[in-house]
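re: the backbone from monday

yeah here it is again, tokenized this time
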């Protein structure tokens, strides 16, 4: 059952945006599984990676904040997801300071043998070009790291 990474919005504001009007609320990425029967998001609780408040994710890009619940312990963390992944992948994810959504997506790919899959583990913009580091999961035992450069600038007619 393949899922999808998507953003949810919290009520907290990063210090960088503290005095901005209108307020710019923090968004963070979550990985949601889809029900095979309905095709809808399987509800789950997640903690904001900035303030720790608990969200109930029930749909893509939507969540309900559970007031008074911060960093609840029954939500799986990176270490708990990592025990189900190959050590080589965990080392790569740790090296790139990956967030839990990426760990959960890789767990889903391996558990359901959804191969091959490419996942962006690092993205940087240099000279108006995206430089990507991609983890290719070829099968449960074979992985590869590749780099790509994407130019997303559309130039007009230069004649």
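seq for it, each position gets an aa:
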């Amino acid at each position: 059952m393949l899922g999808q990474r998507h953003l949810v919005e919290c009520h907290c504001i990063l210090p960088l945006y503290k005095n901005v009007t209108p307020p710019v609320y923090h968004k963070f990425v979550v990985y949601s599984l889809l029900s095979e029967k309905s095709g809808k998001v399987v509800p789950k609780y997640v903690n904001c990676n900035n303030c720790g408040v608990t969200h109930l994710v029930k749909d893509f890009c939507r969540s309900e904040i559970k007031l008074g619940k911060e960093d609840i312990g029954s939500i799986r963390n990176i270490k708990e997801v990592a025990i189900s992944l190959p050590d080589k992948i965990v080392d790569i994810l740790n090296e790139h300071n990956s967030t839990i959504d990426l760990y959960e997506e890789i767990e889903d790919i391996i558990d359901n043998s959804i191969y091959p899959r490419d996942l962006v583990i690092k993205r940087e913009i240099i000279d108006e070009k995206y430089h990507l580091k991609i983890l290719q999961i070829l099968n449960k035992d074979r992985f590869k790291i590749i780099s790509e450069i994407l130019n997303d600038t559309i130039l007009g007619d230069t004649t």
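The chain has two domains: 1-75, 77-159. The helical segments are 78-82, 87-95, 100-111.
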